[in-house]
Each structure stands twice: as structure tokens, then as C-alpha cells.
Amino acid sequence: MTSEYAPQMPSVPPLAEGLSSRTFEPGVGGDGKPEATTAAFTRTVEYGFYEPWYSDEQLERLQPVFSEDAQELTGVYVDRGFAALEPWGSAFETIGFDSEHPVGTFVDYDKTLNAGGAEPLPARLITGVTVNPSFRRRGILKHMMTSRLAAAVEDGMALAALTVSEGGIYGRFGFGPATRLRGLQINASASGDSFASTAPKVGKVLTVDPSKTRDVLKDVFAQFHRSTRGSVDRQATYWETGTARWDPENITSWDRKARAAVHVREDGSIGGYVVFTFAGWDSEPATMRIRDLIAEDATSRLELLRHLVEMDLVERIVAPNGSPVSDPLDYALTNPRAVKTTSLADVLWLRLLNPVTALESRAWNADGEFSLTVSDSLGIASGVFTVSVSGGVAQVTSTDSATAPQHFELDVATLSSLYLGDVSVLTMRDAGRVAAQDEADWQAFSATFDLPTAPHCATHF
Fold first, then answer.
1. Do 68 and 102 belong together in one domain?
2. Does residue 62 form part of some domain?
3. How deeply is 134 buried, as exposed, middle or buried, from its count of CB atoms within 10 A (0-12, 13-18, 19+)?
């Protein structure tokens, strides 16, 4: 029997006594400066990530981009008067932060995710998650996460996404790693395993003034986002740092180290850009560092890298956190040892909220039909789903029991990791994360579900 599917609202656990939470939009006072609550919240996030506190001027710079992204802030606060009832209350009220500073923070806002389907899918992005170490084991993270996932479900979001600082935290909330990035080191010297491309040059790479590139950055990224499975649309801070208006060390200053170049195709259109900095003459060997490289196609990406390698006096190029796992660069060189992978790490973590909408919005590799029993400890996405793929498009229905001959069982975190195609169902089977009822045609399931290339998310948040 087929039923109309609606995700279930999770049960939101209460906070410990003396704590309360509230969600609000970043606010501006009559003087044009961020309200005290917003300023305290933002400074608390930076404190939680061991970063310098923002100055008043820095907060004023941040406010417009927070508003542009329509961010919502959720804070957990110590109730007024409660601290006085505790042995530590006197110290807390005397030398602790004031009551506007939360002991837990959580930020979310909406962008889109390219899941490989016809159109990008709206996604609820999560960032700024911190808990004051003096207030652990009081249910703060669980309360914030479940309450905000409940809000995402109520808003009709098909999935939530985050990038994580610690990999062991978010699996229990149904998140799974869904994309990875490589760090690269390229030998740009004339000796040893040096860089040399097998392809002739195409188009022209121009050194440009980064302060003039805002529209170019937006246009190129928009094309990249539309064509790249795994891509997440970018928050407004990218356009400030990419155009050198914000120094990452102090956003009130211009980034005078930033350099930029664009690849101009033979038809005059711009196919990609790179933002980079020189590590300084005391770096050994002389090193250029890529901050951001976005290209609409492989040709533009390779030409931008070739341009950096051929710059005078530069002996090494490093791209610490932005290279795709599936990179044509590996096979475009006469000597592939000129490029070394220095790191490989997860980036984007996903959490499916509505499997029907999410699965109908992704790419598929072949026609096929199967049923999935999805378990979810929060109850949001639990259910049995029959997936019928024809012509690269899936029709997904929620059923009371499996209706397809091939039936598989997995939890929502596993399904979320499989969603963009970064890992195979066969790998997840071997890891004990996917099981089959009765005899299963794993090869047919893999042929339908798995995708031929790795996804690529170039957005950090």
C-alpha cells in the first residue's frame, strides 16, 4: 500500500535546568551597529573556535553579509538569576561574560545543493556550532540540533548540510560525509619531477585586478554550481575575500597579498578564475598558495594551473583544501609525479530529511527498481521507500512494506553518505552499513545507484 509521505518531527529534548534557548535574526541598532545580542553571539562563535574576537568595526562589516544570507542565530543562555543558586554562581556573575553571551551557538541559513538532478535542491546549511566547555553534558548540542532540524522539516527542506571540525560528533544526528577534497602540491621548478602538460595551450590567462572581479567570480561560480554535482552555493563572504576587500586576518583591511588571474577562452568568454598569494621570499622553496580556483570546465582549470606553474621564480604551488578528488590534472601531465596529494579529507556532510524529495532530485546511473528501508534514530526520515528509475529520473514512493524484488536496509547517515555518489553501495555493504533482505542483485543495485565520478564541493561554511 502506497502512502503520502511526510517526514516526522523529531522529539526535541529539554535543556538542563537553568538554561533556555532562543532563535533570532542578526539585528542592527539605531546607530547602524549590530545589536548587543548579535555582537555577543558572533563573538562567542569566534571564541568557541579559538579565533580572535571581532572588533566593533569588524562586526559592522559582517552584518550586511549575514543579512544577505538570511542567517538565523540560535543561542542557549543561562537564565538570569539561576547562576546565583549554584556554587559557581558568584564567580560566573562577577568575572564571567554577561548574560547576552550564549553558552551554546548554532547558525543556519538556506542555499542550494547540486545533487545532479535537473535543478539544484534547496538545502539548510548549518554552521557556527559551539558549546561552552564549562557547560557540557547539559543537552545543549542535542537540543539545538534537534530543534533546528525540526524547523527545517517544518519549512519543507529535503536535507541539511554542514562542514565539520570534528568527525565524530554528527553521525548520531543522521549526518554522513558526502564529499571529499584533496590538498595538492605541484612542483613548479625546472628540476626533478617538474610540471609539464601534454596538451597545447588553449585561450589566454590574464593577471587581473582582484578588486574588479566581483561579477566575474559570481558568474563563473554560478556556471560551476550548475554543472558540478556536489556543489553548494556560496555565502556572501566569498565575494568579499575573493575581491581582496577583506583580509582573512582582519576583515576591516584590504587583502594586499591577494592576486588573481582569469582564463579567457578563444571566444572571449571567461572560463575560470584563481585567487592566490605568495608565501614570501623566506619560504623554501618559493611557494605560491592557491586560495580559490573555480573553473567551468577542465580546460580552464588546467590552464590556470599551468599559468601559476610558469610564473617566474616560483618553485612550488600548494592548494591545501580545494582540489577535486576526480581531477584531470592527474592525467594531463607528462610526469604525473609532479603533483602530490598532501591531504584527503571529508568536506560536506549531509543529512536527508525527506528521502522522497531528495532521491527524486539526484542523478542516477542506470534504470532500475529497488526498495529501501531507512532507519533514523531521530525518526525524521524513517520509512520504506520504493525507487523506480527510468531515463535517469527517479520516482520515489513511500510504502508500508517493500514492493520491489530488490530490498535493502540502511540508516539515514549511510543513505546521506551515498547520496552524492562519493562512495559505492558495494563499499558500504562491505563496511556493514547496507544489508539486503533475501538474495539481492548487488551489481544491479550498484549500477543504478552509484555514479561514475566523485562529487565536488568547493564551498566551506
1. yes
2. yes
3. exposed
94 and 210 part of one domain: no
Q: How far apart are CA 316 and CA 288, in angstroms?
A: 6
pLDDT of 216: 98
Examine the domain organization and report whether 148 and 25 are in the same domain.
Answer: yes
* Side-chain-side CA neighbours of residue 44 (13 Å): 28
Show the domain range for 436.
355-449
Looking at the structure of the chain, the number of domains it has is: 3
Q: Are residues 43 and 161 in the same domain?
A: yes
Amino acid code (one letter) for 348: L
Q: Read off the C-alpha cell for 51.
A: 579565533
Closest Cα partner for 255 from 292, 230, 229? Answer: 292
Q: Can you tell me whether residue 272 is helix, strand or coil?
A: strand
Confidence at residue 1, expressed as pLDDT on a 0 to 100 scale: 44
Query: Quick check: 396 and 361 in contact, CB under 8 A?
Result: no
CATH of the domain at 50: 3.40.630.30
Q: Are 376 and 353 in contact (CB under 8 A)?
A: no
What is the average pLDDT score of the chain?
A: 95
**Are residues 153 and 191 part of one domain?**
no
The pLDDT of residue 2 is above 60: no
Listing DSSP states for 130-149 in one string gives: EE-GGG-SSSHHHHHHHHHH
Three-state DSSP at 387 gives strand
What's the rounded Cα separation, in Å, for the pair 264 and 269?
6
Same domain, 158 and 187: no
Q: Tell me the CA distances in angstroms from 336 to 184, 187, 205, 319, 341, one per residue in order.
A: 12, 10, 23, 16, 11
Q: Which helix (H) or strand (E) holds 302?
A: helix 298-309
In the DSSP assignment, the letter for residue 457 is -
Do the beta carbons of residue 174 and residue 413 sit within 8 Å?
yes
Alpha-carbon separation of residue 24 from 35, 384, 439 (angstroms): 12, 36, 52
Q: Residue range 119-136: average pLDDT?
A: 97
Answer whether residue 101 is part of any domain. yes
Is residue 3 very low, low, confident or very high in pLDDT (cuts 50, 70, 90)?
Answer: low
Q: What stretches of 338-426 adopt beta strand conformation (E)?
A: 339-346, 348-352, 368-375, 383-390, 393-399, 407-411
Tell me, yes or no, whether 311 and 366 share the same domain: no
Which residues face 78 on adjacent strands? 19
The answer to whether residue 59 sits within a structural domain is: yes
93 Cβ neighbours under 8 A, 6+ residues apart:
83, 84
- Classify residue 40: in a domain, yes or no: yes
From residue 458, alpha-carbon distances to 127, 214, 446 in Å are 16, 17, 26
Nearest Cα to Cα of residue 39 among 52, 49, 61, 54: 54
